[in-house]
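JOB MANIFEST
job_type = single_chain_structure
chain_count = 1
residues = 517
[input]
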Amino acid sequence: MSDELLRLRPIVHASPTDTGLHVRGWSASFSVAGGKGLWTVWQRLAGPLTAGVPPEQLAVPDQAPPAVAAALRLVIDQLHEHDLLVRVPASWDAQGPPGHVARWLESVAPRPARAWELMRADAVAVVGSGAVAAAAHRALTATGLAVGPVEPGPGLVLVSGGHVVAAGCAADVGFVVAPGARGDVLADAEAVARRLDGQAGEPPEVLAALVGSAAAHRLVCAVAGLPDPAHEVADLWHDTPPAGPPHQPVLVARLDPLRAEYHPWLSAVRPAPPGGRTADVLGDPELGPVPAPETGDLPQVPVKLAASGDAVGYGTTRDSARLDAVVRAAHRLAPDTAVVGADAVHALGLALRTAVRVLPGTPVEPGEWESDPTARRWWKAVVLRFALPAEVEVTRLGDGVVRAVVRSGGEELSWAVEASAADAVAFAALAAAGRAQAGVGEPVLLCGAFPVEEPTVADVPWTDRAWYWPYGVREAEEGLQARLRELAGVAEVKRVALGPVLHAAGLVGFAVPEVGR
């Protein structure tokens, strides 16, 4: 007799359809078409699988009619493929965890028995006070874990073996940080509490219960080797699911209405690059160090605009404008000596361009850039759409280095330094048009070192470089920066420390080198 049973995960539900059957679980589903008889096949199959069958018995009977055999084989294969079946010991019901815990583990754990074994391996210490600690203690006890009495202490700290979770709850807001080593977790909890700056006072019972239970949930998942809850909700709370869970997620809970959601966090003690979601992480409305980048009421034609507080970002797409906005906002948090970029290539490109900006050069004939569709498009936006009495001065600073400066009425609106006259004019004109569109006063620098997202439009015959610009310009940045170093007469450019939070966001700072040193 088999010492294991194969069961349908308790979270699995099925519904008949006009053409067959739809089966769904926690994060996966499938449909089978083949007639209404499939529902009868499912009912015959689901009964034994709910109770559990030895794995070797989950097979198509030899005497089954061909159509029924094909339907059974298809449904069984789909259940396996979508991870809707789980193995448990034959003694699971009699010797396993309490029924409600067993059903939960069967729903979410790859190996429920192993998860239960890990949960029982170490006692749980609860350090805290008040309603939050009481809620965490109740939730942990309900899982069948060995939980000691609440020990007095600030905030809430849950410890089991090498796993630690910390939380806090003010009168209006609470949070739970990601599990980890004790020192890191406590440091993150202290920093999150400062960032949220909640109201002093005892939290309402409902908020305390939510925060305490959520902390217990994160600890239990960490101990049992299950995915952190943040990895599950990422695909459930959004009409358009994000690419993955929030960066270093912290649960933030608030009242009026009662709500809780995981937000990205830039940990100074657990730094990790946020990948391509820098704008969302830096500008998170709850935990970001700069205001969330919003398009709001800003006009979006012809330049895409976004604002992070009063810092305006410019781009040819919404995403690039949002990233530009948060980088400009972050620049205000950095030391005065730093030029801040979205990454090292961008920051170094800005520093080197600033260094050679004032160098003399030779005039470039207009014909060198006027025939370029991109340069012409953005220059027309300046002088025709916004009707600025502008002029552009294009100067060659050296081989493969061209500067463009846009002025109006003697006032400098924007400038750019690029490898070609066309790109230099295009970036300078884009910046000047964006400045006119946004109504801001300071000169604007945009450049080809900026990391632009890959276009989502397919590469089809009717598209050209102008369609995707400025995507692809950055490919020439390495060679351009080498020429800029040579022009500036510098071998090395000094990095400037931006602080742990901006560093954790992947931002980089460089000092502008002095020409000839």
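[summary]
The longest helix spans residues 205-224.
The chain has a mean pLDDT of 93.
exit_status = 0
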